[in-house]
Amino acid sequence: MELPKTLPFSKRRLRPRVIISYIFDYVILVACVAGFAIVDSVEPYHQHFSLQNISIQYPYAVHERIPMQYALCISGAFPLVLIVVYTLFIDGIFSHNKPQDAASGKRKLRGPHRWKDRLWEMNCGILGLLLAQAVTFVMTQALKTACGKPRPDLIDRCQPREGSVDLFPGLSNSTICTGDPALIKDGFRSWPSGHSSSSFAGLVYIALWLGGKLHIMDNRGEAWKAVLVMIPLLAATLVAVSRIMDARHHPFDVITGSMLGAACGFVAYRQYFPPLTEAWRKGRAYPIRTWGTDPAGPDSVRLMGNKIDSSTALRNPEAERMNPDLPVSEHDQPHHAPSDYLTESNPYASNMYNRRPHDHDVDGGAWSSSEDDVTNGYEMRHNYARAQNPGASHSLPQYENPSYVSQTQPLTGAEMHSEAMAGPGRPLTDVPGRAM
C-alpha cells in the first residue's frame, strides 16, 4: 500500500515519516483494543476473603443504575459528538477576525477557519479522546486482573456451600463458591473501578478540550465558561458514585479509578493540544509534526549570547515600572546590542530566537494548526504589539493577528538588526524589511 503524499484539502507534499508518525498513533489505539480483549479473557487473581467480612456481604444488584453501555455513551459518544459538531459547525462563528465577502463586504458567518483547518482540529480532538479511553481501559483491566480484589457483593455472587466456614487460622477462598462462574470471575475485579476510570478519562479530556476552545484561563473570569467546563466533571463524578450505590465497588476503588482516568485524560489532551494556561492559543491543536529542529523553548525567553535567562518569564516589567519602590532589574536597562534578542516579559510574547515570520494566510489572516507551511518547519506565533494608552505614560498590551515563523531557517543579518530595533511600541510589521 502506498502512503498518501498530501493531507486532504492540501496541495503541499508531506514527508513519509510525518504520515507514518500519525499512523503509529492509530496503531497504538488498535493495540490497546487488542490488549484489552486479551487481558479481559484472563482469569483474575482470586484473593482470599473472610465469610465474616461485612464489607463484601452487600446484595448483588441485578440492575445497575448506569450500565457500562450507558457509561460509554456518557464518556465516549457525547464527547465525540461534541468534538465533531463544534469543530465542523461552531468553531469560528464568534470570532472577531471573520473574513469579509469580496462582493457584499459582509463578514462570513462561518468564521476564519477553512475546511482543512476544521478537519485537522477534529482529527486531533478525536485522536486524543480515543487515546484517553483506550489507555485507561487497558490499564484498568490489567490492574483488575492482577489484583483480584473482591467486590462488595462477592458473598452473594459466590453462594458458599452450606456449612462453609473460614479456616482456623486462615481465610476462605473461591473453592467454596457454587454460584455462576462468570459472576464469580467478575466478582474479583473490584479495584480499580472501570466505570470511574473511563468516565473521568473521557469527561476530563472533553472538559480540558472545551476549556481550551473557550480559552477559560484568559484572565477575564467569565463564570459561564467555568460552569460549562464543570458540567462534564459533575457527570463523571455521578457515574463514579453510582458504583458505590450499586455496591459494585468500594469507595477506595472509585477514588483511585477516578484519579487514574483523570490522569489519562490529561496526558492524552496534552499530546495534541496546548495547556489551558496558554489561553492566547485558544485551544487550537498542535501543528503537523516536524523533525530536525530543536524544541521551542518557553515563551518570553531572553537570549543574550550563549546565556539564557530562564527567570525572565517570571517577571512583570509593567508592574515594576508602575511601582517606583521596586528595584530596577538589569533586564530593564535600555542598553542592548543589536545582536541581543529580547522579547517582552509577558505571557503573550513569543520566543523570537531563530525565527522568521511568514506571510499571512490568503483567507483573511486567520491562523490554523493544519497550515501547509508547518510541514516545512514553520510553527505558529502570535505577535504581541503595544499601543499607547491615552492619558497614561505606560503601554498596554494589544493582540495582533498571528503568523507563522520558521524554526529551521536562520535569520539574516539585516533581519536580526531589524528584530533588535523593533521597540515595545512598534510592531514587527512596521520594521523595514519584515514582510508579515
Automatic annotation (TrEMBL):
Single GO MF annotation: phosphatidate phosphatase activity
Transmembrane domains' residue ranges: 20-39, 68-89, 124-143, 193-211, 223-242
GO cellular component: membrane
UniProt xrefs under SMART domains: acidPPc (SM00014)
Domain Phosphatidic acid phosphatase type 2/haloperoxidase: 126-269
Any one GO biological process: phospholipid dephosphorylation
Main location (coarse class): membrane
Biased composition (Basic and acidic residues): 317-338
Keywords: Membrane, Transmembrane, Transmembrane helix
Region spans: Disordered: 311-357, 388-436
Ranges of biased composition (kind: Polar residues): 342-353, 390-411
InterPro entries, per the entry: PAP-like, PAP2/HPO, PAP2/HPO_sf
Protein topology in the membrane: Multi-pass membrane protein
Entries under Pfam families matching the protein: PAP2
Domain of life where this protein originates: Eukaryota
Subcellular location: Membrane
Family: Belongs to the PA-phosphatase related phosphoesterase family.
Protein name stated in the entry: Phosphatidic acid phosphatase type 2/haloperoxidase domain-containing protein
